[in-house]
């Protein structure tokens, strides 16, 4: 199955503070979006799983592109997430095709990444905003890393396209004060705690 990519867009935020004291080191939060032709647009297809395998190289390309935009050091990445916006001629299940190719590619690239990759999938029109959830890559319950990043591409997705996204962060929220499990308290190394 052919994966027809129209374009790839990258955005990186350099967060220096969030109204509190300036951080010693800014937190980078970034996303990459691949705009892909939806081969299933406009019709119901029962067996679509073959596209998951076809998307695996794109998952690795997007992960590598985003990591490079964020400085290139996999050890600097603390959080991640993914998502997709399916154009109006598609269905939610088409966006779910990104779970394995996107999530596993990031985990492979980052080395130790035990936590499930949080995700959001929705149907949308051109310019639809996608809020990608983020959490800690090794322990989903690290409360300081419950965050997100907003991604959109002005001309995407068209009705017969899917916008597949990945997101990474070099830290959690800038001034966490809500308690709970902290990054230095990860002890079980089970993806949760």
Automatic annotation (TrEMBL):
Pfam families: AA_synth. Residues 174-193 are annotated as: Disordered. Transmembrane segments: none annotated. It comes from the Bacteria. Signal peptide: none annotated. InterPro entries: AA_synth_put, BB2672. This is Amino acid synthesis family protein. It comes from Phreatobacter aquaticus.
């Amino acid at each position: 199955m052919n994966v027809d990519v129209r374009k790839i867009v990258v955005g990186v935020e350099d967060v220096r503070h969030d109204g509190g004291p300036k951080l010693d080191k800014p937190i980078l939060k970034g996303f990459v979006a691949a705009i892909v032709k939806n081969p299933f647009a406009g019709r119901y297809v029962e067996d679509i799983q073959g596209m998951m395998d076809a998307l695996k190289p794109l998952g690795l390309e997007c992960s590598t592109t985003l990591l490079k935009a964020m400085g290139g050091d996999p050890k600097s990445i603390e959080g991640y997430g993914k998502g997709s916006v399916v154009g109006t001629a598609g269905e939610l299940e088409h966006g779910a095709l990104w779970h394995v190719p996107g999530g596993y590619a990031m985990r492979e690239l980052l080395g130790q990444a035990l936590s499930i990759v949080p995700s959001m999938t929705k149907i949308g029109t051109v310019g639809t905003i996608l809020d990608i959830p983020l959490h800690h890559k090794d322990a989903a319950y690290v409360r300081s890393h419950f965050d997100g990043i907003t991604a959109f591409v002005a001309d995407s997705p068209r009705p017969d396209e899917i916008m597949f996204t990945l997101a990474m962060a070099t830290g959690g929220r800038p001034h966490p004060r809500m308690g709970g499990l902290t990054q230095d308290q990860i002890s079980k190394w089970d993806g949760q705690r």
